[in-house]
Amino acid sequence: MRRAKKALLLTLSLILVSTLGLMTNHLLLPSITPTNAVLTCPTGGPANACLSVSLDVNSRPTTTASSTCAVPSGQKGVCDTTVATLASNATTFRVGAILNASAAARTLTTSSCVGPPASATLVGCGVFSWQFGIIYDPTLVTPQGDPTSYCAGLPAHPDCGEDTVWYGSNTSPVGNPNTPAGGQVNWASYPTATHPISITEDPTHHTAEILIGFAFLAPSGSLPSGVVINSRNTLASVAFGLVGKGSPTFSIADVIFADANAAQIPGIMGAPDLQNDRTLIGNNNYQNRLEFSDTNANGVWDSGEPVIYDSNGDGKYEAGTLYSDTLLAGSAPVNNTLLSTDPLIRFQDLNANDIWDTGEPVSYDSNNNNLYDTGEPVISSPTPSTPCTGGLLPNNTCGAVSDTITNDPPHAIFAAIQTPGQPYVYTFTSSSTDSDGPITGYYWDFGDGTQDLNVSGSTVFLHNYGSLCLPTCPNGLTFPGAFTVTLRVIDNLNATGAARDSSDAPISNGQPSHKTQLIFVDALPIPSFTFTPSHPVLGRTVSFDASASSDSDGSITSYRWNFNDTQTGTGVKITHTFSAAGLFNVTLTVQDNVGATSTKLLLVPVRASDQAPTVSFTSDKVNPVTSDTITLTITASDIDGTVTSLAVDWGDGTTHTIPGTATTDTHAYNTFGTFTIKITATDDSDSTTIAQANQIVLPRHPVVTISGPSSANTGATVTITLTSSAPDGTISSIKVDWGDGTTDSLTVTATTAAHTYATVGNYNVTITATDSNGQTSTKSQTIAVTTPPGLSTITLIALIAVPIVAIVTVGLLLLRRRKPAAKPDTPQSSQVNR
To answer: What is the pTM of this model?
Structure first.
């Protein structure tokens, strides 16, 4: 039975998505091969009323077991086979579905068969699966069980609702359903069988259907391959909770019984009522072919307008040799007249094939209760059966029953208020209402495994998830996180609606006495974004940046943008182009890892047009050299806005972005040459203007240093140390001017130079370095040259005179040798006596 509830909850999520008017598949058991016409009934011929499934609007489950009724675990005994056609209720009630079988009309097609057939070509004898539907008005009721004592033993969800569907539990000490003679079947005794349930609601059109199914599992040694039913048997009982006051009608529909071969057993049908034609047109799609000619074009059938059965479903009246549509009422329209449908044109399906057949009554269901009521227009004779009469076969025709709801159920409303500065603490306040009586109980479930079941009343103050969920919540959840809070209210007549099922899952449907709200026990993310330009122009790209958004206890997982011009987008950063001028409220919604969202709005003014800014500049240097600091004086303005930024491109790969209000910028070049300086001014609409000029930068001069003695003696060698370098090139020559008329050329790598002075004096030594760019630099140093220390003046004179005397003497001797000698009288030798 729990599986049935879970299947119900799975389909409840589709309640407001699908609509009955669009539903094309009315099979819970899609493997069944349906029969398109009932030719014979299970045990008789056309005169037999067939087996029908009737509705009991006052199905009364029991807690007392007996020989004819079992009370299964998890539900009450569902054995009531007395059909009630009318009822009045102020709280949730149950509608039963009863198979009108008997010993003379069993669920058999072959009287001598037990179990599945030996050949797939034969029709099996026993019931292996079945389904039925109940059509109802979802604005008055919805399938749902009330809170039940069966949940009392479930600590985590003690206020859960009972199963919406309880399966029949008829038993009988006489007969055996596993034999051809048959017996009663306790459907609830097979918990391992499948129990599919589907709910589809269309409140707009006041139409809904719940489909309930049952199927044995095959192959299985523990389950029968088919059962034979030989007496009135309750298939299931469906709980309907109150939605509003009124008189809802319940109609049986989509009755199918099948054997173990998945073949539909013919002759078992829903008790007749009024329905729309549903001609199968393939792939489980159906078409209503009971149509009319809307002569006054008001969209609904009016008395006297022709009613036609559109045989080929082409939406036109045709009376020819190829196709011939059936005229049911009124005068035949002109051939090819377009036809319309009115869902209140209904027929009584006497053979349960869902298709109108000749001879079946057609009427206009003015009050939309799926029943023929006295006084409603009969479109095609015979007159349909009047509202059903209860009791046993063969008098039963209860395919539709009605109820009067005398109590408007309470409507649950509450607010969840996060405590400022305490993101994990909430206060819950109910503002629930009841139009016809007081609310007497408030049952809270906080989604963390704790409840307040009519203790605090309409307001629960300061529920602290932080303290209750350390390290984890009672139900295993953690925080920060998302929690589903529910409130169930009950009125003075005990009308209510369960808020959670037995698995603690919140129930979502149209029943108003319970309310569900998802809260985020979490510090909300903080959205933040900027956009540029600040005053966009239509047709131009605007950049939006939300990277400054933050979340103090988690992370932001999504960024959603709405530009208020029908366009949206996602992402941390995004661009957008507005196609019109004006003020646009752009919103950013951020969602964190828990699911909490926050939104920020900024007003974006979009201009129709924009005038570009103006900009000019001057340089403070005419012929600077590399490494010189150059200062530009900048003048920028914008006539219809503001200059937001200046981009100064110095032409050497260096760009400075400075505020639009800046008036100067400086730079030093590392290389020499001619550079084009460009300044781009951008205004608050992203319009730009560029000013440019050339800047000539010269190479730097060589760098020379000199060091040496500041004094020297005549005749002594003087050595100086020097360095030279070219910052923007290489040294090509070095010369030393010693100041005494002597100039030396050095190698370009020389680091020293030497010289000897002969005379006393002050000499200015100058080094000249020339680089590869032709640039020169000089460096000078003065050297005072003096005589050696320790010699007097006389000594100096003597030192000077001695060489002079020696020179004179040598000269006289040379002169004397050049004079001629005296001639003797006679060559003789002479001897001088001394």
So the answer is: 0.63
